[in-house]
Amino acid sequence: MYLILLGLPGAGKGTQAVLICQETGLVHITTGELFRESIRQQTELGRKAQPFVEQGLLVPDELTVGMLLDRIARPDAAQGFALDGFPRNVDQAKALDDALAREGKAIDKT
User: Which of 13, 19, 35, 65 is least buried, going by the fewest C-beta atoms within 10 A?
Assistant: First the structure.
């Protein structure tokens, strides 16, 4: 199962994602944690994203999508994930759909 939780800041996306993941065993993925982890590990994408994060700017789509695709390729996400804070725009959504389609997967759109 591949879920995306959408809503305004403070709407409860993170709370619901935690509950859903506890019940289903899905991996909870947030863009904030992706950025922090990539920067902490000094990955190539993390090094490129660091100046944006430090300045409080939005990280460019190509970096955000790259980090997300790296994350969902890990074995623990093979059975599914719940995304919180992604996608932020149509281009990010399309990039995710395209990447999953290449793997024969799709977001559950219900």
Answer: 19
Q: Which CATH class is domain 25-102?
A: alpha beta
Can you tell me the mean pLDDT for 63-67?
93
Query: Exposed, middle or buried by CB within 10 Å (0-12, 13-18, 19+), for 36?
Result: middle
Beta strands in the chain (DSSP E): 2-5, 27-30, 81-84
Q: What are phi and psi of 77, to 5 degrees?
A: -95, 0
Show me where the domains of the chain are located: 25-102
- Do 26 and 81 form a contact (C-beta atoms < 8 A)? yes
Query: What does the pLDDT read at residue 31?
Result: 92
82 token code pair: 């719940």
Q: What is the mean pLDDT of the chain?
A: 92
- The whole model's pTM is what? 0.85
Length reported for the chain:
110
Dist CA 89 CA 58 (whole Å): 12
CB atoms near residue 108 (< 10 Å): 9
